[in-house]
Design goal:
Blueprint: E1 16-21, E2 32-37, H1 40-51, E3 55-59, E4 77-88, E5 94-110, E6 116-121, H2 140-154, H3 160-165, H4 168-178, H5 183-191, H6 195-212
Parallel strand pairs: 1-3
Antiparallel strand pairs: 1-6, 2-5, 3-4, 4-5, 5-6
Helix pairs in contact: 2-6, 4-6, 5-6
Amino acid sequence: MSLHSGYKSPGDCPAIIPVFPLPGALLLPRGQMPLNIFEPRYLTMVDDALRTDRIIGMIQPEADGGGPPMAPRLYRVGCAGRITQYAETGDGRCLISLTGVARFRVESEIAATGYRRCQVSYDDFFSDFEPRAGEEAVDREAVLKALREFVEANDLKVDWAGIEEAPNEALVNALCMMSPFGVREKQAMLEAPDLKTRAEVLVAVTEMELVRGDGSEPTLQ
């Protein structure tokens, strides 16, 4: 099942959306995020989204904690994604893929109905609706240099041919989404004002990890 997005501006997007709090999960505009849904409240969330606008907001719980275990305090910025693939399994789960639409800022939380919903605004992230905005400002060589050093230090295998062919937006966003860094680092990448700054955050965090060299999460101050 493949569903395509028609969201072209902030005014096209729903103001009240379900949110899925998941630490370490970073969705960015036009990025693809596969999710394995099994908790009953989130199965209900997916069903409800499919019946309406197919939008789910990915957002991280705050790294410092706070709030009750079932409703941790959330960062104020997340990314709305549209369900573009959906499949049911034989054991009650569903497998979905979200395609990032745009970042949002939480204005308030709506009373719980099993899963969490928020009133959100997309107005601070108008450029998210413009594919490949700001690509020319990205220091691609710095990104690739950091990636090569990280790959070598961790003995990883990557598809270099695919990486070389990827445009800057797809390259930077995919590397940020797949990066093994912590909640604060992922949030800094998400909240970067533009693609150039996001690439700089990615490079800086990668370089910090290489300097540490002990396999622990870097800390972004």
